[in-house]
Design goal:
361 residues, alpha/beta, FAD/NAD(P)-binding domain, 5-stranded parallel sheet, 3-stranded antiparallel sheet, FAD/NAD-bd_sf
Length: 361
Amino acid sequence: MNSLRSTFVHHIGIEPFGLESFAKANGREDELVPTVNYPARPSLDLFLDHSDYVIERNDLESLHYQAAVEEIHERPETQGLRLETTAGPVETDSCVIAIGHGGRYRCPDWATNVDGIDHVWNGFTPDPDADRTIVVGGGITAAQLACHLSETQQVVLLSRHPLRWEVSEAAPPWINWSYVQDELHVHPPGSRDRFEGIREARNTATVPPYFYAEFEKREADGTLTLTQEAVESATARDGRIQLSLDCGLQLIGDQVVLATGFESVFDHPFVERVADTLDLERGYRGMPVLDDGTLAWQTDTDRSVPLYVTGALALGTVGPYASNIPGAWRAGDRISAAIRRRHRSTSDETSKEGRRSEVAH
C-alpha cells in the first residue's frame, strides 16, 4: 500500500490535526494525498513516521512489556486483576483487551492443506520466480496486493462477487459517538439487533474508487485480470496450483494468495477462556456485553470487574469503526475516563478506611 484508506485526521495521536501539523513542520504536505469527495489521506510513510514521532515524544517504549497473556484472574483483596503471562504474573488495577482479530485468518475449506496456498497475513512472501499469481478476495487488501504483484508478473484477481466501490469502511456519521448512540445503543447490549445493524453498516470487502484507474491501466496492459467466480476445489500439481471453479473452468497459477479476511474475534479461544474464568456476559454469537458508557465487560453476576474492551471485540458498542482508528479514539476516551473515575473511587475508599482505623485506635 502507498497510502492509507482513512483521512489525515485519523492517526495514533490524540490531536486531530497532529499529523497535518507534523507534515507541514517537515515539508511533507505533498504526502497528504487528495481524494475526490473525501478529505486528504496520508501516505503510508508519513503515517508511520508520525506514529514513530508520537511514540518517541510520549516515551511509550518505556511502557512496553512483551509477553503473552494466558489467563486473567480477579484479585478481590485489591479489586484489581492478576494476569498470568509467559513472562510471569502481572498485577494491575485494570486491564484493556485490545487484541484486534487475534491473528486468526479466514481460510476457505477448499484451500485447507493445499501446498502453495497462503494467506496474505500469515507469512506470505511473494515468489520472485512466479510468472502468474492468483489473488483470492474482493476487498482493499486483495486489490492492493493484486496491483503490487502485477508490477512484475501476471495476476488474476478472483472474487465471488463484483468489486464493490466504497471510499471508507462505513458511512462517515458512524465516526460520531452521538450517531452510534442513536443508531446502535437503542438496542440491548450484545443483542442480535446490534450485530445485524453493524453488519449492514460496514462496507466489508469493498475497494476504494481511487483504485479504479489503476485497475483499468493494468487490465489494458494485460498484467491484471479480474475474474468473478466461486472456487469449487484446489489441487497442487507439478509445482503449480489448479483452481476448479463452479462454472466448470480452471485457473492455474504458480501460487495462490488468500486475501479473504479474518475469523470472528468473538469466539477466539483466549476470549472464551477469559470470559469463562471471570464469568463475563456474552450475547449473540459470543459478542461481549459491555457497558456502553465505559466499555467495561459486564459479568453474569452484576459484580464490577476492571476489564475493558476495545478494537474488533468492541464492535457491539463502538460500531462499525471499532477496529479502526476512529473507533480506538472513541473507545480510548471512555475507557481512560472510566479508569480515572475508578482510581479516584478506590483512593477515596482507601482514605476512608485509613480514617476509620485512626478513629478506632
